[in-house]
Design brief:
- The chain starts with a strand and ends with a helix.
- The chain is globular.
- Helix content is 29%, strand content 22%.
- The strands form 6 sheets. The protein has a 6-stranded mixed sheet, with helices on one face. The protein has a 6-stranded mixed sheet with strand order 7-8-9-10-13-14. A 5-stranded parallel sheet has the order 21-25-24-22-23.
- With 465 residues, it is α/β, with parallel strands linked by helices.
Length: 465
């Protein structure tokens, strides 16, 4: 048996490629939407992808299940659990608890593990060439390394009302009746790692075991004592902000994401053409440079989404294709870099990319306004805006600030002042630059605090030394 973990550092998301060498067959669980990585794995191992499935209707990224099935003619398998409100809107083989997917000598058995979502399935894997007992569990967003999938996202992202309490109860029961009945040796492979907003304290280690989690997890003693009330309180307390784009992902994943097919390579665009299209609001220009460079001069109306590890995350914060269905133009070093940026963006449904430019030559530049911590005191601001998470804000903030996380602030614009100046900050300045540039594009007067909260702390301490 071949079991490969494909990890996206951007969204802290794991998908799994499972292959039977004897039959030359493979399947993918929780695929992302840029599918070349799976096609390359299949070709390198002389396998054909014959099945694709997913653990649940995801909220944090756009599923690649339909994309991969269309490219390989693989069969789609989908959860049929969770009740009428949680059924997929596209075709596939419907799976209930204990249904199986055969893959040569390998068998995947569905285990209904509601809690994070009502329809959630985990998958037990039995390598028939080695044993007649399962040895591996793909736990999706049910059990993470050192944590559990949050049960409050349906309230936060899907318009639910107090569904978190039902979800917490279901998680407790799923742990007791499904997870903890497995042998300690079963290896557990979750769908997310550290940095994901699908839990509050996910570990960065790729896998765990049932026995390790049983003995060392924060929730183990609650299950042992059958203390559901204590379990529920600790599970729900301190969950991070749910990004506003989660609602869009949840809806699109339930209906079935649009199939992109083969994407043609992006072409470099003349800057004069980009300037004309920006003037008529036909495109969104993305400045992919570090915020320290952006502060030296950028194109008015552009959005700062720095190239690197978090393009999909930041892109989903700053660009909403449901509100502004306009193509994106990327600042990129070359075509290869532009295609890599596009790969990240399609993971969150930002599909329309018109092309790229390699410089801002000929485009009108402006210098974003900034303010130092020393200048902040006495500055006439209508709102001091903290775009960090609510847990960061609660741990320490600049007096007088209000918190709207960078992943939610564009969806709370009615709570921001249209008249007067907003001074914004995050922890170090990266997230703040993303949010501030998007708010400027929406017409707000935003001044960025140099050094953000970390800079303010240093200055404040120096004043009191």
């Amino acid at each position: 048996m071949l079991l490969e973990r494909i990890y996206d550092e951007d969204l802290a998301q794991a998908s799994y490629f499972i292959g039977c060498q004897a039959k030359g067959e493979a399947m993918v669980v929780d695929a992302r939407r840029d599918i070349d990585v799976y096609l390359r794995l299949a070709a390198a191992n002389d396998m054909k992808i014959v099945a694709v499935t997913e653990t649940h209707i995801h909220a944090d990224y756009l599923s690649g299940t339909r994309e991969l099935a269309a490219a390989t003619d693989a069969s789609i398998y989908l959860s049929a659990e969770g009740g009428e409100d949680w059924q997929y809107g596209f075709d596939g083989v419907r799976m209930f608890d204990q249904d199986t997917i055969p893959l040569g000598n390998i068998t995947l058995s569905a285990v209904h593990t509601p809690g994070h979502t009502p329809e959630h399935l985990s998958f037990l894997i039995t390598d028939g060439a080695f044993s007649d007992q399962p040895g591996f569990l793909l736990s999706g967003d049910f059990v993470f390394v050192g944590d559990l999938g949050r049960p409050d996202l349906l309230d936060e992202a899907a318009g639910g009302v107090d569904t978190r309490f039902v979800g917490a109860h279901d998680t407790f029961v799923s742990l007791k009746e499904k997870f903890l009945t497995l042998p300690d040796y079963v290896q557990v492979y979750p769908a997310h790692g550290s940095g994901s907003a699908c839990g509050k304290s996910l570990g960065s280690i790729p896998s765990t075991t049932v026995g390790y989690e049983r003995r060392f997890s924060w929730w183990g003693h609650y299950l042992e004592a059958n203390d559901e009330a204590g379990f529920t309180k600790e599970l729900l307390d301190g969950q991070p902000d749910a990004h506003a784009y989660f609602a869009r992902m949840k809806q699109q994943n339930r209906q079935g994401p649009v199939i992109l097919g083969a994407r043609e390579p992006l072409t470099e665009l003349p800057t004069a053409q980009v300037a004309d299209r920006m003037a008529t609001d036909e495109v969104s220009l993305v400045d992919t440079r570090h915020h320290s460079v952006v502060h030296q001069g950028t194109v008015r109306g552009s959005v700062n989404i720095p190239a690197g590890a978090k393009v999909a995350s930041y892109g989903a914060w700053a660009l909403d294709p449901e509100v502004a269905d306009r193509p994106v133009v990327l600042l990129a070093a070359d075509q290869e870099s532009a295609m890599d940026l596009w790969d990240h963006l399609v993971r969150v449904g930002i599909d329309l990319v018109a092309g790229y430019i390699t410089s801002f030559e000929g485009l009108p530049l402006f210098v974003p306004r900034t303010i130092s911590p020393a200048e902040l005191e006495g500055f006439n601001t209508e709102l001091l805006l903290d775009v960090r998470t609510k847990t960061e804000h609660a741990a320490g903030d600049i007096p007088g600030s209000e918190q709207f996380s960078a992943g939610r602030v564009l969806w709370n614009m009615e709570k921001l002042p249209r008249e007067g100046t907003i001074v914004s900050y995050c922890q170090s300045g990266v997230r703040n630059s993303v949010a501030a540039s998007a708010l400027r594009r929406a017409g707000f007067d935003v001044v960025e605090l140099v050094g953000s909260y970390a800079g303010w702390i240093d200055w404040h301490q120096s004043q009191n030394a």
